[in-house]
Each structure stands twice: as C-alpha cells, then as structure tokens.
Amino acid sequence: MDHDKWHEECGVFGIYSHNENVVLSTYWALYALQHRGQESAGIAVTDGSFMDLQRGMGLVSEAFRQGLPSMTGHIAIGHVRYSTTGSNLLTNTQPLMVSYAGGHISLAHNGNLTNAKKVRNDLEQKGGVFQTSVDSEVIVHLIARSAKPTVEDKIIESLEQIQGAYCLVIMTGDKLIGVRDPNGFRPLCVGKLNDGWVIASETCALDTVGAEFVRDVEPGEMVIIDERGLTSLPFKTGQTRSLCVFEYIYFARSDSTIDQQSVYEARLAMGRQLARESGLKADIVISVPDSGTTAALGFSRESGIPFAEGLMKNRYIGRTFIQPEQKKRDLSVRIKLNPIQTVVKGKSIVMVDDSIVRGTTSGKIVKMLKEAGATAVHMCVSSPPICFPCYYGIDTSIRKELIAATKQVEEIRQEIGADSLYYLSLEGLHRSLTHVKPTDMCYACFNGRYPAQIPEEEDCEDSKHVFELAGRYCKNGQS
Questions:
Q1: Would you give the end-to-end CA distance of the chain in angstroms?
Q2: Among 33, 107, 159, 350, which residue is least crowded by beta carbons within 10 Å?
Q3: What's the whole-number mean pLDDT along residues 7-27?
Q4: What is the mean pLDDT of residues 326-338?
Q5: In CATH, what number is assigned to the domain containing residue 403?
Q6: Which residues constitute the domain of residue 230?
Q7: Does the structure show a pLDDT above 50 at 475?
C-alpha cells in the first residue's frame, strides 16, 4: 500500500440488459474501476425472482478466483472497495444483499456517511441487528424499515436521514437504481449498451463494456432503470455542488471524463500551470508513476524541459501488504519504484507528483534519486498542500499525520530532502479545470471549508489541534 496517498473508498457499477451477459460485463467493469479499491470486490445478480452474490477479498482477479456468480439474470451490480469505514473483512465486502418484507434488495456504495454512527445507534436502540461495520448497512436498514409504498419512496425517505457523500447502485428484482448525493461529492454516470443501460463511477468502465456515455447523474438525482427504460427522479436540489477535486488530481483514471471535464486534460493543464508558477530550470522532468505522469508531461511541454522515465514502477506487486518493521517499510518503496540510473545520473531533475500526504514516500524517492547520481531533485506537486482531513469518502485515518497541517513549505522541503519544493496554487488549480466551475468543487482538504456536515465524533482535542495548526498554515498563503 502507498501510505503517502489519499485512498478512495470504492467504485460501483450496475447493468440492466436482457441480451447481455450482465455478470461478465460487471466483472470486466470492475477491472476498469480497480484503481478505486483493491481490498475486496463483489458482484450481485438477479433474474427477477432470486438474487445471487459472490464476494471476495483482494483484487478482482483474486476475489473471483473461485468463479463468478453462477446464476444468470438481467440485472447485476458490482463493487470494488477500499475501506474508510469498517474493517477490511469479508463480512464488510459489498454489494450488501438482504431480504425484507418488500422483497430482495442489493446495494453498493461509494462515499462516506458523516452521521452513520448516530443513525446506527438509533437503529440499534430500536432493535436493529447489524451484520457488518460499514456505514453502507444503515442505508439498507432504513430502506427495509420504511413504510412507503414504492422502493423509490423508501429510498428517498432513507436518504432524508443520512448525510455526507454517497453514490449508490441499488438492485431490486426488476429495477436498477442509481443515486448521487445532493452535493455530488463522488462521480456517477449513465451509459447505453445496445438494448440495456449501465451505471458506473467513471466513464472508463463504460468504455470497457462497450457502452455509450449518455450523461452524468446530477447531484440530488435518482435514476431508475426498468423495462420502461430510464426515468429521472430528482430527490433533493439546491445544495452546493461540491465534486471532490481529487477526482481530477489523483483518484479517477486519466481516460475518464467527469462532469464534462476530461481528467487527462485537467492533469495536463495542472502540469502546465505548475511549470509557469515554479519557473524551474532543470535537465529533465520525471514523474512519480503513474499518477504524476500526465502532470509531468504538461510541465515538460510548458517548460521545454525534456520528459524522461526516471523511475520504473513495479506493476506486479498486487494488493496491500503489511510491513510491520521499519526495514520492511523502507524496502516496500524500492519494491514499488526504482530509479533508472542511466537516466538520472549527473542530471538536475524536476520530479512531479500529484500530492504529498505524510511526506514519507516522497523523502525516500528523493533519497533514491540522489543515491542514483542525480545532482539536484526539485519536487513539484500538482495540487496545493493538504492541510485538512477529508470526511466524504477518502481514508481519514491518517488525519493527524498530514505533513502540511504542521509544517511550512520550507520545513517540508527540508524533511523530504528536496533541493526545492513547489505546490500548485489553489488559483492555478482553478485555472486548470476549464470545463467545471471552481464553485462546483470541494476544496476542503486544502482550505478547511467543508460544504456538508462532518462527523461529530471527530470533534476531539487532537482534531482541534490539527485544525488550529492547519488554519494557521493556510492563513500564510500556502493554499
């Protein structure tokens, strides 16, 4: 695992078709969404009368090593997970599937409910029994308990009781339903596949299964797909549109388009803007692969400094592995990345990465490059400093370790051992997103302006301390 990056919670996919192999299509789509979660994967399918579910730990290839769901059907949903809420256990894998008075239902969730603990406590006080520790299960309980007449009404009543970030794909015996929260924190889109329909976290999944992109699901919208086709049902409008800016910086695949903005073009523009702001001169530009590569190409094109592959990435190390000893943690960086000595030796280098969270990995990479003979390493980051934790679907367990929450840029530079350190300005980030309005994005991890409620249980002395330090840091004009 890369402990010096934000980690997205998951990716979701759903398909409705009477002519496609919906299980196989979901399987391929999960491969396309693998970057959004590597801890577990699952597929649920229905033929209208019964539901079948297959889940497993690890990458998609590992999770389905024993085979896909054996049942055929016309609706399927899938999920890849990185845990932010709930332990990394098989019982916490999704999709979740339950039977209740209204029939069978299966649900997959991307995001993080900020009031999940309170809602769960309330449900448990009323006799609710939970099988997992994931926040997504409270949604299933709320739907099952609703006395509303239709499943759409049950879902809407449930959504009125939850807060935070959520993109959902929900499967009943005859319907595929997609939901995007009123702020639109996480992406969700709809595609057409011959006679059928698909819903996915990113357009790259549509491309993989051969579906044609139709449109993004709007914030506060529910889309219902059944034998009549697609129906739109807005359930809450007028909220502040707040798509996570890190979808463009790091999370999404470069070949995806989110809310009409190409991720690749955004990252290229971030690199160009970073070159303008830094004004650096060097022999070569390299990236920290793969997430920093597109921005590095933009930096190279704008600055005229040649781009080179200075770091080779090992793409076969698989999913998370635990390194309890310091020596093993240090070794894990070399297992993942190794300098190409003939490229970097005797060169001054601009190294582009998308972000710095803790700074630990950045420091090790700088050290490796200098040991390989680089004369200077100038680190350029295609995002502003991360001063604040995220509560909307990104791993926040390391919130007390955000290096930019406690250190100035010069202090960070000294800690990672770089010859210089430049972050992209928040204004520069705005300029790089040419097809989305700056006011439609969430920048809370940079400026602490949270567009929706954050968990009350996070209001502890340690968190307050981090927030005070971060606020002092950001007031100095660093983000």
A1: 27
A2: 159
A3: 91
A4: 70
A5: 3.40.50.2020
A6: 10-241
A7: no
User: Looking at the predicted structure, is the pLDDT value of residue 240 above 90?
Assistant: no
CATH of the domain at 91: 3.60.20.10
**Does one domain contain both 228 and 332?**
no
Residues 446, 393 within the same domain = yes
Q: Quote the pLDDT of residue 118.
A: 93
Q: Retrieve residue 37's tokens.
A: 């979660």
Rounded distance between C-alpha atoms, residue 129 and residue 175, angstroms: 26
> Does 257 map to a domain?
no
Q: What is the mean pLDDT of residues 59-75?
A: 93
Q: 187, 210, 241 — which closes off a domain?
A: 241
Least confident of 128-137, 194-203, 244-253, 264-273: 128-137
The whole-angstrom distance between residue 281's C-alpha and the CA centroid of its chain comes to: 33
Tell me if 255 is assigned to some domain: no
Tell me how far apart the alpha carbons of residues 447 and 426 are, in angstroms, rounded to a whole number.
Answer: 9
Distance in angstroms (rounded) separating the CA atoms of residues 451 and 239: 9
Evaluate if residue 264 carries a pLDDT over 60: yes
pLDDT at residue 457 tops 60: no
Residue type, 159: L
Reported confidence tier of residue 472, pLDDT bands at 50, 70, 90: very low
Q: Which two tokens stand for residue 196?
A: 């059928």
The pLDDT assigned to 377 comes to 98
What was the pLDDT predicted at 9?
64
Stretch 107-113: mean pLDDT: 94
Residues 230 and 370 in one domain: no
The domain tally of the chain equals 2
Residue in this structure with the two tokens 């998308």, named with its chain if needed: 354
- Give catalytic residue positions: 10
